[in-house]
Design goal:
Oligomer: single chain
Number of helices: 10
Radius of gyration: 23 Å
Mean pLDDT: 95
CATH superfamily of the largest domain: Zn peptidases
CATH topology of the largest domain: Aminopeptidase
CATH class of the largest domain: Alpha Beta
Number of domains: 2
Structural class: alpha+beta
Low-confidence stretches: none
Number of strands: 18
Shape: globular
CATH architecture of the largest domain: 3-Layer(aba) Sandwich
Helix content: 25-40%
């Protein structure tokens, strides 16, 4: 039987970095390569209803082993990794029995330091899996896939543990906000689900940002700089003015908890035309609309100071806070909490300062909170995960399946 670590180390060898510039689904060919490998693994495990569609959505089911009605629950993870860092040629290392101090990442002078990552102080005695400093690790979210399949395999090997139908779903392109685009909730067949896509041990999340993107386009006039006086309008200067007018302390590096932000994520710039791309986040929908209004006011102000309207502003809503869709189903949170406590994990309910497939799936009729994987520092070369965290995640999922079954016995 494969261990969760063996699975995880095998999965991270697949390059599944998603591509936001692609119109295809999945957005990168490596995701389908990985999906086909997982499909073969699901079939080898003799799970039922194994299917992989042309868009890279992979589903399967572990049938119920009890003779009374139990709601079918879903376990979901995503196959892609973030476009923020390379996921090609990932070289993980395992630091056994960590006892503090810096962890060298194998190449160059990159280190994991508890000075910058104080969570390491809590992980003495843990076995830590890191990158070699050249790529991300892929714990987000290949750890979730490994944990789900290891939990399912454990349930298969221990038929005395009761469970209802366990629906398994692996999605593409979550990292670029498209993971739920073509997800067939009816085909999936679960009454509720859990994304296994969280961070440190004990995380349990059912609130996330309301999210939108903003594109600010600045139109300039380009002429030869030697004869530019009174003629040139440098769009990059307009873009710089606009950015300097934005709320300085309402950015990711200055906010935490329930505080929202504006984030300048990338830009394309030239004299004739510049475009600034922002993401807007707020846990309150009214707060998100207020952020849009602030940007509108700044654009109007700059347009009024020029000889013509040279700035365009476009918004695109991404996802909403799933809290309103999950809170009416408190039992699914209580089951997850109880499962964690049973295996010795203290639940840590907190908001997701980001997005998840579960947010959109919740609004598609599949309430879907998020549970921990045991990982840290997702999306970059300092990503890491602990072996113990992965083991706790597997045990939590096994116990969650059992508690769902026993809570409905004789109901």
């Amino acid at each position: 039987m494969n261990t969760v670590v063996e699975r995880f180390l095998r999965y991270v060898t697949f390059d599944t970095k998603s591509n936001p510039k692609s119109d295809h689904c999945p957005s990168s060919p490596g995701q389908m390569v990985f999906a086909k490998a997982l499909q073969a693994e699901l079939e080898e495990m003799k799970l039922s209803d194994v299917s992989l569609d042309e868009n890279g959505y992979l589903m399967a089911k572990l049938p119920s082993n009890v003779d009374y009605p139990v709601p079918a629950i879903g376990l979901i993870a995503h196959m892609d990794t973030s476009p923020d860092a390379s996921g090609k040629n990932v070289v993980p290392q395992i630091v056994e029995n960590y006892q503090g101090g810096d962890i060298a990442l194998g190449k160059g002078d990159q280190v994991l330091s508890p000075i910058y990552y104080p969570d390491l102080h809590k992980l003495h005695g843990h076995d830590i899996i890191t990158t070699d400093g050249n790529t991300l690790l892929g714990a987000d979210n290949k750890a979730g896939i490994a944990e789900i399949l290891s939990a399912v395999e454990y349930l298969q090997a221990n038929p005395d543990i009761p469970h209802g139908d366990i629906c398994i779903g692996f999605t593409p392109d979550e990292e670029i906000g498209r993971g739920a685009d073509k997800f067939d909730v009816e085909k999936f067949g679960a009454e509720w689900a859990y994304t296994v896509d969280g961070g440190p041990i004990g995380e349990l999340e059912y609130e996330n940002f309301n999210a939108a993107s903003a594109e600010v386009i600045f139109h300039g006039v380009n002429v030869h700089p030697g004869s530019a006086k009174g003629k040139m309008v440098n769009s990059m200067n307009l873009a710089a003015k606009f950015q300097l007018m934005m709320p300085e302390l309402e950015t990711p590096e200055h906010t935490e908890g329930y505080e929202g932000f504006y984030h300048l994520s990338n830009a394309e710039m030239s004299v004739a035309k510049s475009t600034l791309h922002y993401i807007l986040r707020d846990f309150d929908q009214e707060g998100l609309e207020n952020r849009k209004a602030v940007m509108n006011q700044l654009v109007n102000k700059l347009n009024q100071t020029g000889d013509k309207d040279r700035i365009e502003l476009h918004f695109n809503d991404s996802y909403r806070n799933m809290k309103e869709m999950v809170e009416p189903h408190t039992h699914i949170i209580e089951l997850a909490q109880a499962a964690m406590k049973t295996v010795g994990v203290e639940p840590n309910i907190k908001p997701i300062r980001g997005g998840t497939d579960g947010a959109r799936l919740s609004f598609m009729g599949l309430p879907c909170p998020n549970v921990f994987t045991g990982g840290y520092n997702f999306h970059g070369i300092h990503e890491f995960i602990t072996v113990q965290g992965m083991d706790f995640a597997v045990r939590t999922l096994v116990t969650l399946a059992a508690k769902t079954a026993t809570s409905h016995h004789n109901c």
